[in-house]
Specification:
By secondary structure, this protein is α/β, with parallel strands linked by helices. The chain has helices at about 5-10, 25-35, 55-65, 75-90, 125-135, 150-170, 175-185, 190-210, 220-230, 245-250, 295-305, 320-325, 335-345, 350-360; strands at about 45-50, 70-75, 95-100, 110-115, 140-150, 230-235, 255-265, 310, 315. It contains 14 helices and nine strands. Mean pLDDT is about 90; it is low at about 1-10. The structure holds S-adenosylmethionine (SAM).
């Protein structure tokens, strides 16, 4: 099964998210620990394939003004939004291309390639095209992160989805309603857990995830084999560097993997300490600044009620009253003035510990 129709990507918006497993700073540190001479991300060329609205890529561009960030997606609507946000946040180092991967011809190789949430959502020929493209488009010290859903853990999820689909067909209800009905008759604790996990994702994510028209889960071994057939070498998990295996995935019911690859002809020397990557995210301060201020990208996220990426690219979601307080953080108001403002617009908010938390997540410039 495959997405044949590009409009499918326009008809249901994929929620904008940033992804810690595709944090290039972390991936570079993993590559260096494996002995690869990975480039400093702050001055690198970064490509995201299937970037959607560019939330992840724009967060990287915001962190590293000296990096050249390129986002590629076939969805006109997603690319329009990405371009508009890049412009409004003043992120001139982020460029977006509306094209299929098969049509994309970059003028230079990339130090880092990200394909998050792509492999499992595209037809087999595009999966092959992805690995082929990466094999041809990395610099000698370059790395690529490819995430995918793992067959071992998806089998039991798909059994739940099949039951929910039967309810959807019979009762003309949507996926969330069908899951809620299914929850009342769940046969086992495990089934209940899976239903609750799906419900927690919400309708927008479910439409492109568990209930996507294409959800093609593979084994780690099969993905690595495909990568190796296209001139790539497997490093390991994109965050830990650990090399998993299919047997343990079956034992633990793994559902998702994010793996790091480099060119098969890359020279691997001695392991280099992760601290050689100067551009690793800084440790955010816990002290409250005198005049709290969001940078332009996070201010735009707050204004548009998008998740704010923290220092580790974890998406932080806020309530509307909290967003009103964040939007007031343009650097013109003192922490004291903000606390008075918070009393008006977010009376439930315990302002000082909340602001300390916001500062501690690295959200304030
Ligand atoms: C599931 S979404 C993932 C979005 C984002 N990378 C994330 O993980 O949050 C997959 C994205 O891939 C894009 N896409 C699918 N097939 C494509 C192709 N052949 N070339 C370029 N983009 C494609 C879709 O438009 C969509 O934005």
């Amino acid at each position: 099964m495959a997405f044949k129709d590009d409009d499918a990507w326009n008809s249901a918006d994929y929620p904008p998210m940033s992804h810690p497993s595709a944090d290039v700073a972390v991936n570079a540190a993993v590559a260096r620990a494996a002995g690869l001479d990975a480039r400093e991300p702050a001055a690198s060329r970064i490509l995201e394939i299937g970037c959607g609205e560019g939330h992840h890529l724009l967060s990287l561009a915001n962190r590293w003004p000296g990096a050249q960030c390129v986002g590629l997606d076939v969805s006109a609507k997603a690319i329009h939004r990405a371009r508009s946000r890049a412009k409004r946040a003043g992120l001139g180092n982020a460029r977006f291309c509306e094209a299929r991967l098969s049509e994309f011809e970059p003028d230079a190789p990339f130090d880092f390639i990200i394909a998050h949430g792509f492999f499992s959502w595209v037809p087999d020929e595009v999966k092959v095209g992805l690995m082929d493209f990466i094999g041809r488009s990395l610099t000698p010290g370059g790395t690529a992160v490819v995430s995918f859903n793992v067959a071992a853990g998806w089998k039991e999820r798909m059994a739940v989805v099949e039951k929910a689909r039967a309810i959807m067909a019979a009762g003309e209800v949507d996926a969330m309603e069908a899951l809620a009905i299914l929850r009342t008759v769940a046969g086992t604790e495990r089934e209940l857990y899976l239903i609750d996990d799906m419900l927690a994702k919400g309708a927008a994510v479910l439409a492109h995830d568990d209930f996507a028209p294409v959800m093609d889960a593979w084994s780690l071994g099969a993905v690595v084999k495909l990568a190796e057939a296209h001139g790539l070498r497997w490093i390991g998990d994109s965050v830990s560097g650990v090399r998993g295996d299919d047997t343990s995935d079956i034992g633990s019911g793994t559902t998702f993997r994010s793996e790091l690859f480099c060119r098969s002809d890359a020279v691997l020397g001695d392991a280099k300490k992760p601290d050689r990557v100067a551009a690793l995210p800084r440790v955010p301060p816990t002290a409250i600044p005198d005049f709290p201020k969001l940078d332009a990208w996070r201010m735009l996220c707050a204004r548009e009620a998008l998740p704010l990426p923290d220092e580790d690219l974890k998406p932080c979601v806020f309530t509307f009253p909290q967003l009103k307080v964040l939007i007031a953080m343009d650097g013109s108001r003192s922490a004291y003035e903000l606390s008075r403002h918070a009393k008006e617009v977010a009376p439930e908010l315990d302002f000082v510990p909340w602001l300390r938390h916001v500062a501690g997540r690295g959200l304030l410039g």
